[in-house]
Fold these 4 entries.
Entry 1:
Amino acid sequence: MSDENKWEGHARLIGLEKEKEKKEKKHEEFTLEAQQRRRDRSNKPFFPRSVYFNKQASKDGIMHFVDGMGDTNPLFRDEEYAKKTRYDRIIAPGSYLYTVQWMSPGSGGPGIHGWYVGGEWEWYRPIFAGDEIRTVCILRELVEKKGRMGAGRTWIDYGDVIYINQKDEIIAKEYGHAVISERARASSAGKYRNIPKPVYSREDWIKILDMYDKEELRGSKPRYWEDVQVGDQVGPMIKGPLSVRDEIAWIMGAGSPFFRAHKIEYDYETRHPRALEYVETEEADTPGDVPELVHILNAFARGIGVERAYDYGSQRMTWLCNFFTNWMGDDGWLWKMCGDLRAFNQVGDITTFEGKVAKKYMEEGNCYVDIEAWAKNQRDEWSMPPHISTVILPSKEHGQVKYPDPPQSLLEEIKKARPLDDLIKEGLI
């Protein structure tokens, strides 16, 4: 016979009690103690316990990933095509690394909602099919903001994720940004509530389909640095109207931090009894499930003040990467990418990417192009405001792209990295 007391405090039983007693749901606060605990973890490099989804860049994994973001570039999926390129095999787009790790873990706490809002990427080496990848994570600043989304209590959490291949080469790093907010306050603020779901006419759909049909994919035709001029238009490229189908396709390729099944999920809830968000829905008999359902079910999105299910921040950043790789062609190299996510991209919304060449220059034998890029939704709101990203292009005079080297400071920091559990045992994190 089962020992009933053994399960007291389990997340599912907490949910039943809340339903039975009809209590108003309560959420944790991001207390001063919790904020200080987070700040005490800053600038201590560590190896995380696990990755989100992929440890290897397999051919199938890369194909599923680009399928999930709607990228048709054969360089990422067609082995015969890839053999004819400078890479001699399939590679992954740089944003594939989101399937390995998104943000440095350990920033928030039980009941505290966090969402990724962009980052600053640098890529140093290609990701080849078959590469094994591990990460070093470093929490950085925690900055308090007075944002409306959190009813005056909002924080921006910053952290670095450094990606290393099986050759001990640093292949990339991202300085990521996440918003932290208390769920109850975000829900009551309702900044993104009562936004009507868009309706598209026949004429609208013709325009949408035309944009998809005209999407530029430079591919095997080199875009030479000499042929690019300041002021040249880049794009446009469209994504959407966003659907739950798009979200599921994304998860199939990019994985999920929190979607687990059956025994694995319930064991997780035993270890983390406050991990769930208690929301009653028509889709479930028991209130409560993982907060990640904000991307699938409207009821969970409304729990943090957003009218409908919305995209993953890493998903939208991946579209920005798609925008650049389409433009630069297979011989170009996306070195730096900066993106800042603003308006929630809700089900039904369209995201249109555009840009222009802001600068071209040469340094240390490489030919650089700075591109100012942005994205807007159908309400003419900034989905991503203008930021500068940098592409290295081949040159008719100076030859192929040379991969940039990571800064020495990164090399020094990863030498100091230790397993997360060791730092916890010693009371350092």
Note: The first strand starts at residue 46 and ends at 47.
Entry 2:
Amino acid sequence: MAQATLAVIIGNRDFFPDQLVTEARNDIQKLFQEMDLEAVMLDQTQGKNGSVETWAHAKEAADLFRRNRDLIDGILVVLPNFGDEKGIADTIRLSGLNVPILVQAYPDDLDQFNVERRRDAFCGKISVCNNLRQYGYSFSLTSLHTVHPLSESFRKDLKKFVSVCHTVNGLRKARLGAIGARPGNFNTVRFSEKLLEAEGISVVTIDLSDVLGMASRIADDDARVTDKLAAIKGYANSEGVPSASLVRMAKLGVVIEDWMARYDLTASAIQCWNSVQQNYGINVCTLMSMMSNQLMPSACEVDVTGVVSMYALQLASQTPSALVDWNNNYADDPNKCVLFHCGNWAKSFLPDIKIATAEILATTLGTENTYGAVAGRVPSGPLTFARVSTDDVNGMIRTYVGEGMFTDDRLDTFGARAVVEIPNFQALMQHICLNGYEHHAAMSASHVADAVAEAFGRYLNWEVYHHSCA
């Protein structure tokens, strides 16, 4: 399956050589094949050699895009020459597409400033962007004002743009499950369903007692339980975990997955303490870890905007994400800290994963009731962190995002854990505290902050603090 499908609009101006359009089509086809992308664009018998120049061409291209609208993730505007800015803007308007847009312009060659090869796309790009603004469209730009599609610079631009498309489109139609009520004292994870719904993010709720009741009524020898039990044992080292606890996990997993499938939910946030331990006798963390590892992110403590943050990072990176506590200082290093949860992080973060007890919760809930937490250490590598928060008082969504590195610094403790290094970290903590953000953040083992920030700010119109390394 292709990474993404992009509608491609090749702009043209009637007094520039048609050969430039043909060359651009060939370049885009070669690039898309290399990057495993699909293109929806006019063929060479349509428009003018496959380009858009006139109102008639715009209608033809728009009709093609409308027929493929369910496949299209974004729009790529290609300018082999100055292009017709009105034709491009008209095409997008007539198509009815509401997806991210990337504008590319070819560079001129100093040795080819003759009539036969001159492009003037440098200037044409400014006019295209002007018209897109007039028509009310948000759009993305390449790192360099003019850039050849087959250059390494543009490949990076396009890779980032695809991440932006995945993030924007995924969030605009997300369906999240909230299982149970937040822990009583956790005002931290309050959120506004209405603000999320206004952005296309739906929240479906279910009472935890319903879930526990359905799980309790499933027979131990039910085939679904047997299959789920095998999946749990195959997922992580379960040595030392009582068989009764594993069976309870399997039953709960069956109920949660059935409920999510029934409502087409893409992610979940679960009341992970205290009721599930007191009334059912396990921690739900292993099941949450398994779902996150299968790209169905699951957040602790009914932190719904936390799972929105996880889902955004997952969409951008196409890899699992996790919810973390900004938990501890790391000795006296101002740019390092310890990330922790008791924990439910996806297996992809924890090569030494094992099913354990939640040692902190066990002090009040009993060790025998907390089997199901997962433990392990994240190895060194790239880190992106992010947080989405609903500012109910001001009727807006606010976010932050940034990058750092996981490190292999010494850390002798339990649970799911990591040491991270983030440049200018104290400024980030100042921003989080002064602006009332939650103690939770989402993390990804990738560097996708630029794409996430662009998706949040440019296309979703959320307030973004993009943490600076300076």
Note: The mean pLDDT is 97.
Entry 3:
Amino acid sequence: MADSTRYVLQENQIPTSWYNVVADLPTPPPPPLNPGTKMPIGPEDLAPLFPMAIIQQEVSAQRHIDIPGEVLDIYKLWRPTPLYRAHRLEAALDLPKNVRIFYKYEGTSPAGSHKPNTAVPQAYYAKQEGVTRLATETGAGQWGSALSFAGALFGIDVKVYMVKISFSQKPYRRALMETWGAQCVASPSNETNAGRAILAADPDSNGSLGIAISEAVEDAATREDTKYALGSVLNHVLLHQTVIGQEAIAQMAMADAYPDVVIGCTGGGSNFAGISFPFVPEKLNGKNIRIIAVEPAACPSLTKGVYAYDFGDTAGMTPLMKMHTLGSAFMPASIHAGGLRYHGMAPLVSLMHDQGIIEAQAVKQRDAFAAAIQFARTEGILPAPEPTHAIKVAIDEALKAKEAGEEKTILFNLCGHGNFDLVAYDRYISGQMEDYEHPQSEIAMALAGLPSVAE
């Protein structure tokens, strides 16, 4: 099967447990802190926001956590997802036979992305605890769509605060959420104190994930029937996504291959963690494998941010987390990769970058879309704007190997399709899309507001 195009596992090969990378890291992750006392928070501090089973997973150091049977049954609607060998892209790049590109395709889920991998278990645990309503935020709409889908399956009402610029750019994402029964509003909104404060200061605010998180957290914290669900960043979210990498390892074995380079795009870190974390033990045991996180040059938390304690939201309602951050006051540009417009990076991804386990690169918007067009015209799949960043770096790595005469196997995560993102493609094709790279002075201004934490 070494020269096949698709590598497909059977339903009975879906992973039966999630992999927790915390168990294998040489340094334990720094704890989240209470913003008032600056002391580590306990489960009781998170109980107003999350079901207890989720809190236990968030703080767990157990290597494998069993996937509940009801969640596995729902996973079967789209899992296992296929692994592809990019034969036609390789041919277009005129790569030698010893340079191979593979991609794991998560766009086959009902919501069209990797996000249901965590939306389903989060809704399941909420249902188990008697929760009847979930509040959340969404950037590009993939997470909001996924949680709306999961809410429909479990009979849970879902309220989605969608970053206003994406709400405007992607009306059909809102329609999809509403089809599954969710309520979706543009953030900042007039429905929360956090939203009203932002609008009072800037009536034309395009919003940000940090603002939308503030609204969703406030919503959940002020209603007894509601819990908060998050689509990225936190440990339990990254944990649930590791079904991707576990499947990819089995599928790469079917192809008689093992990656020299694993690549994923990063905004909050869930898609990147999903493909890469299961490969980390081999790297820590000495295997020569590079793991690359790719972010937009317009929101460069890993490549230009600092590793420090910061709020996860704009209004300062969340615990302090140690992460690579541009500052919670950072307002990202209105780039089309809406899922990658977050001021911070997942604490676990940040820790591994700080320790040199992973590396990071930043890609400009037009370069990413140029790679996406080449991919779509060869492989046929229209990528979501977010994974176009990973495609760009995968192509770059392949061409470097070709030029150097090196043998190289490259794996990247194609975390979703771009069928709701044709406005972005139209802007690129028509020449209206512009690159934006934040001046260091603006980043410095946002970082100046970091909370003071003695370490």
Note: Residues 388-404 form the longest helix (17 residues).
Entry 4:
Amino acid sequence: MDKYAQKVLDEVKAKNANEPEFIQAVDEVLSTLGPVLKANPQYEKNAILERMVEPERVIIFRVPWVDDKGIVRVNRGYRIQMNSAIGPYKGGLRFDPTVNLGVLKFLAFEQVFKNSLTTLPMGGGKGGSDFNPKVSPHTPGKRCSDAEVMRFCQSFMTELYRHIGPDTDVPAGDMNVGGREIGYLFGQYKRLANEWTGVLTGKGLSYGGSLVRPEATGYGDVYFAQNMLAKRGETLEGMKCAISGSGNVASFAAEKLMQLGAKVLTLSDRSGAILAPEGITPKMLADIMELKNVRRGELAEFAKKTKAVKFFAKANSWRLADKIDAAFPCARQNELDGKDAEYLLKHGCRLVAEGANMPSTPDAIAAFVKAKIMYSPGKASNAGGVATSGLEMSQNSGRLSWSREEVDSKLKGIMQSIHDNAWEAAAKYGAKGNYVAGANIAGFVKVADAMVAQGVC
């Protein structure tokens, strides 16, 4: 690693010793920047790395709410406003028991480069709470009711609203924050601020949302994979694909892969994973999406009613099929480890396109890079969601509504630009074909140049 980058990484480790995910994310980026730092001494002179790894603002607050039994509950809320050099903070809200300061700092750090790669004027941020809408606080085996989720969201936004705005910070959804939660959050913001603005993205179509936004991350992941294959004169037609997750990202990645002639073999959730040896069909996928989005159930339930799939309790998607051409990790961070990577490579995998944020562990990434397969990091290939959120912001600002075809066309163009910029940056700095280095460098340079131009701030 470059001497300057190593010095900053050592400082990050010392200051944030109890935040392993954040340290991992910083290490992954800084380890690729050596050639850029050497060619641009002004970055060290202006302490760009020191400033880039430190959030501009960290907001932590309590979220009191009342459950259906009249019991007062208290959760913790966060917003990490990481970097606003190229635009207002932009990044999702995550509601999950695993949410803590280190996880959100890693996500916000990744978001800075991801948003830079989209070519849209958006800075990076992330937020959320340790609230779990999937578990009722008073009835074992049940989920929070809609009324409980609404009361939590209203309390959460009552504090958050004073820190956000269409030109300051524009949150969106993330894990466990879908259309229902965004609706409740937006309604409370509108009530408190007494204004209708595009302050949240991922909204419903009836109140300012964008067509293709729910599909965008999954579709964008597949579009990026298409671009990687096109560089080699190949297509997705006939490829056997393993996907992890079964939420929006995974489901719409599966849908797009099927449309392009690929065969989807696996999906997963916290209950386990399903394997469909003959491929998941569009009808099966529709049933899974209804189960997850409407009834909010688990794949174990689906597998009991579907003979065409095998269910593996508490398993992931990576070691189930005998032949896997491509893998799409679309669940959560560090879900694909070195052993999984070894299995995938041994069973024919030649493309990995990350749909989640940092889903591959460092040893898995090292294995993919060493094998010289087509491997794209999440900050590049899952940027379609935030890119379409940026398009939603543009529509809201102009009081416009674009057609599905217009938005999808813009999304395809953005994903191709991200691919091409990463490819060209890697080639320019001696790492041709390495999308990890290319994405980090391309995302970094835009933000770093903006920071230099704006002085010490």
Note: Residues 404-428 form the longest helix (25 residues).
